[in-house]
Design brief:
223 residues
C-alpha cells in the first residue's frame, strides 16, 4: 500500500516511516496540513495516518475536508487526546479509526488491516461488460472468464477503479509495481499489451485505450 503519514513530531514520523516501510508499504511523510493537501493532490494513497495536533490546525479538519470532496481513502487519526468525546468526534468527523498515543506498533498494524479491509475498493468492480470479483481474484468479460496473472489483475483493477480517468505510466509504475524499477523501463507498456490482448481480443468495443503522450484509460465509451 501507499500510505500518507501526516505527523509533525520527527521521532514519531520517523518511527512510522521505518516501521511501515519494513512491512512493505510505500510511505510519504509530511509535517502539516498544507503539505498534506499537496500530497493528496499529486498521488493516490491507500491509507492516511493523520495527527490531530498539527502546526497549522487539526488533522481531523483535513479528513472532513477530504470527505466533502468525495475522497473515501481510509483515514486513521493519531492523537494524544484520549477523552471519549474526542474519539467520538473523530469517528463522526469522517475518520475510520482513532488511535491514542502512545500506541503499540502491532496494534496500529491491526487497525490498518481492519480499516483497509473495509476501505473504498468495492468487492465487485464493473466497467461495461467487464466484471472484476476482487475477493475471488476472478475477471469476466461478458460470459467469458479471463485468465490473468497476478500483475495483470492488479493493473486491470487499478485502471477499473479509476474507469474513465486517464492514468499516467508513472502512476501505474508506482501503484502496480514499485519504486525500485527504472523509470525508463517499458514494463508498463509490456503489461498493458498483455492485458489488452486478453481483455479486448474478439470484442467489437475495446475497453483499454492508450491516450498518446498521457497514459492509459479503461472506458466502455468509444474513443
Amino acid at each position: 500500500m501507499r500510505i500518507l503519514v501526516i505527523e509533525d513530531e520527527p521521532k514519531i514520523a520517523g518511527f512510522l516511516q521505518r516501521g511501515l516501510s519494513d512491512e512493505g508499504h510505500r510511505v510519504d511523510v509530511v509535517g502539516d496540513l498544507a503539505q498534506a493537501r499537496v500530497a493528496v493532490g499529486v498521488a493516490d494513497h491507500d491509507l492516511i495516518l493523520v495527527d490531530r495536533m498539527l502546526p497549522d490546525g487539526d488533522g481531523l479538519a483535513l479528513v472532513r475536508e477530504l470527505r466533502r470532496q468525495g475522497l473515501t481513502t481510509p483515514a486513521i487519526c493519531l492523537t494524544a487526546r484520549d477523552r471519549v468525546e474526542e474519539r467520538v468526534e473523530g469517528l463522526y468527523g469522517g475518520a475510520d479509526d482513532y488511535v491514542v498515543k502512545p500506541f503499540a506498533f502491532d496494534e496500529l498494524l491491526a487497525r490498518i488491516a481492519a480499516v483497509t479491509r473495509r476501505g473504498p475498493s468495492a468487492d465487485r468492480v464493473q466497467v461495461g461488460d467487464l466484471v472484476i470479483d476482487v475477493p475471488a481474484h476472478r475477471v469476466f468479460r461478458g460470459d467469458e472468464e479471463l485468465r490473468l496473472t497476478v500483475r495483470e489483475f492488479d493493473l486491470l483493477r487499478y485502471l477499473a477503479e479509476r474507469a474513465g480517468q486517464v492514468v499516467s505510466r508513472t502512476r501505474l509504475l508506482e501503484a502496480v509495481w514499485d519504486t525500485t524499477h527504472d523509470p525508463q523501463t517499458n514494463v508498463v507498456e509490456v503489461y498493458v499489451s498483455y492485458l489488452r490482448a486478453k481483455l479486448d481480443k474478439g470484442h467489437d468495443r475495446p475497453l483499454l485505450h492508450t491516450v498518446r503522450g498521457v497514459g492509459y484509460v479503461l472506458d466502455d465509451r468509444p474513443r
